[in-house]
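ok so i was messing around last nite and threw this chain in just to see what happens. nothing serious, just curious
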Amino acid sequence: MNPYEPGNSGEVPPWQPPPWTPPQQPGQQPPPPSGQPPQSPPPWQPPQPPPTGQPGGGQGSIRFQDPNTARPRPPSAGEIRARERAEALAAQQAAMLAKKKRTNRRRLMGGAAVVGVAGVVAAIYTVSSAGTTTAYCTTYQNGQEVVVSDSYCHGSPNSSGFFYYGGHSYRYYYGGSNSIGRSPVGGSYLAPSNTTVKTKSGTTISRGGLGSKSHSSSS
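result:
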């Protein structure tokens, strides 16, 4: 009611604030005016995928290269330096491996030579350091062999190893521990090889070992 219309008393009514309305969220439709039905939201639509394979590309697009027309990208300065460092490291490792192989080969050759020389020396030492065998002069008496003095076995024996003195035959008996007047035991009438042979009195009959030869000498 307008107080200034004719017929009114002329009094101004007190001020009244406008009715309160709730704040609107972003994208929210304002409420319809009073007396109108609310509008229904549009039907839901599924999200559409971005277009692919279009010329010029774009965000989310896939670009295909033709191997017949594509050109490789030149390497950057960092890639060139990394490749040079890798090549230098590979060359250094190859040189170290080759040096190690040469050193091992030389060690093996040196070891084989040392082993060969040691084997030869050991063989010479074994042959040269052969033991000593005692030879006893024996003769046949009263139906058996007995040990007699070394003086009966002197000079050079015949091909059968016998010495002849005063119409009797004598020969050496090798090995054992025997005494004059007793039958020899513990040895053999065959001369041993690779050993030094001495008589009971100390005369060397033959020397064994490398390059030995039979001879008689006084020790």
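not much to say yet. The chain has a mean pLDDT of 75.
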